[in-house]
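Q:
Just now I want nothing more than another pair of eyes on a protein record. Here is the record:
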Amino acid sequence: MAKPRVAVHKFTSCDGCQLQFLTLEAELLTLADRVEIVHFWEASSDIGPGPYDVSFLEGSVSTEENLERVREIRAVSQVVIAIGACAAAGGIQALRNRHRHEDFLKAAYPQPEHIDSLPHSTAFSDHIRVDYALPGCPPDQGELKRVLADLLAGVRPRVPDESVCMECKRAGNVCVLVASGEPCMGPVTRIGCGALCPAHERDCYGCFGPQAGGNPVALGRRFLGLGLSGDAIARRYRFIYNWDPTFREAAEIWEKAADEHAPLPGPGEVP
């Protein structure tokens, strides 16, 4: 019986998500016994063409070449899995989306006319159908293994969508928001990191993206009570997942509230 053909594709990114595969070390060798890794530039120069049973996509769509290639990959892949914050929401490079693309090019390059990039850094789901998205900067190794194991077993993968607060409660962590007054984003951030920052008495900064059902605007009112300004609250949402619609909307609301002529959002105005 033929082994499933697995590919890992890099787009505009730092390679950190791919490294989560490589640092599996001995477990990666076990995985290689069960699947045929046919395309993984980070690991091997022996690159095979599609079709692929599973394609993992890292990075964001930031160039015309990215856009053309991701469509080609989708056409020859049975399952497409976006891994990491860039893949799911444009990542850190999406910070440029709110400003003039030309200004960034002129500031960074002596000959910007030679740079072929798109005005916006976007998620793969903005351009193709994505079957599963694993959040994080980078994603959790355990989650990568579970999803691939589920697919190999013929089971539909389940990606948890609880808040970081649930991880804290299970681990017995003291709530840094309540006990220490830290502007922790755990109540609106997706599970998956093992509550790493709160476990070390640090506030969560949302690197696994928004949790479905969370209310980041309401959490902003709690931050307001801790002494943060509207601008400071907006910056909490203008980070790794800044272009995700949920965090982007919250940031825009609090930026507007920071205007001296705009009232702060009241309880009745919280979505």
User: Anything to note?
Assistant: The two ends are 52 Å apart (CA to CA). Strands lie at 5-10, 36-40, 52-58, 77-83, 132-134. Residues 83 and 134 are 5 Å apart (CA to CA). The first strand starts at residue 5 and ends at 10.
